[in-house]
Amino acid sequence: MAQINDHYLKLKSGYLFPEIGRRIKFFSDANPTAKVIRLGIGDVTRPLAPAVIAAFHRGVDDLTRVNSFRGYGPEQGYDWLIDTVIANCFQSRGVQLKPSEIFISDGSKCDCANILDIFALGNKVAVGDPVYPVYNDTNVMVGRTGAADSQGYYDGIRYLTCTAENNFIPAIPTEKVDLIYLCFPNNPTGAVASKEQLQKWVDYALAHEAIILFDAAYEAFITGPEIPHSIYEIPGAGKCAIEFRSFSKSAGFTGVRCALTVVPEALSGKNAQGEPVALNALWNRRQTTKFNGVSYPVQRAAEAVYSPEGQQQNQEIVRYYLENARLIREGLEAVAVSCYGGVNAPYIWLKTPGGMSSWGFFDKLLNECHLVGTPGSGFGPSGEGYFRLSAFGQREDVEEAMSRIKKNLA
Ligand SMILES: *Cc1c(COP(=O)(O)O)cnc(C)c1O
Asked: What structural domains does the chain harbor?
């Protein structure tokens, strides 16, 4: 019998969403006429922008003709997409990157996980608490941790507490860590980091020769002009940070699949002899061996996100979600619920009223308002007493949800 990877058995096996589903089913069976509105999902609902769809179609049509057919493309992505990304996401914000520093992929979730391939198990890793579970669980899977304790903390991981007391911006560790996951705008808290706050992390990483793994999946939702969109807007980050970007939330690509990872050539780690080795070359080797590129029509669709029409249409979609977020915040504040995020992010993170537990509030919201959200405790122990609502729903549902909250939670 083949032996399994025992580290998988340490995982708290996908408890959150099955438990939510179980409770909704129990409620719906008992209340068959209640219309349950889901404000829990982290998936988009608006269709692809017309300019993106048109380019997607043209990409498919290219495959029907001998002279424009494409087979395997470059594993790193087509240069026309990479050049477009550099010009529109980075150069426009004063960040200079070379095409060889950008790797187009089929998702940030996979890249955040796969990046662990190029780092030794002995590295000390820091993750937020609460956190996007992928960062934590992939470190458990590769065997970097011991077992979870009764609270859900894994032995060997350094957790960075994010609560209202620190405005959901974690304190810099006083000890040395080697890999640090940061996500701004944050899922689940909706928090954003200022230039000054990110500068402290970059200074820490440079001083301790650590690498920052910066997840910018929600940068398109930033509205404040002074908030950085890329970690590379911070001086020194080009020597210590890898950045993950995704078309999923910014352009509705959750089902289409396209993302990118930036690994600057100036980034190094050390080998067993203590000599520096370029991370860019390692990641390139990893990708060319284990990945065969994103499909050609999808890359054409992604390129169209940056056309003038594509940008304008996608900005409109982002504004739609941010307006949902504003309505949710207003609705909650009207019934004196403290909420955070939802201004530069599509998530509202609220403090459960009356010191209720996250699951207690879940049940109250479901039973009294027929609304579903996500218990904060599902994102980590420090999420206990908090709750996440998503702004990715349909406007009518958000409006109906808020009128139920005003009627039943006041
Ligand atoms: C949605 C999301 C992503 C994007 O993942 P994809 O695989 O590109 O769809 C990345 N990071 C966070 C924190 C997310 O919530």
From this structure: 12-47+312-409 (3.90.1150.10), 52-308 (3.40.640.10)
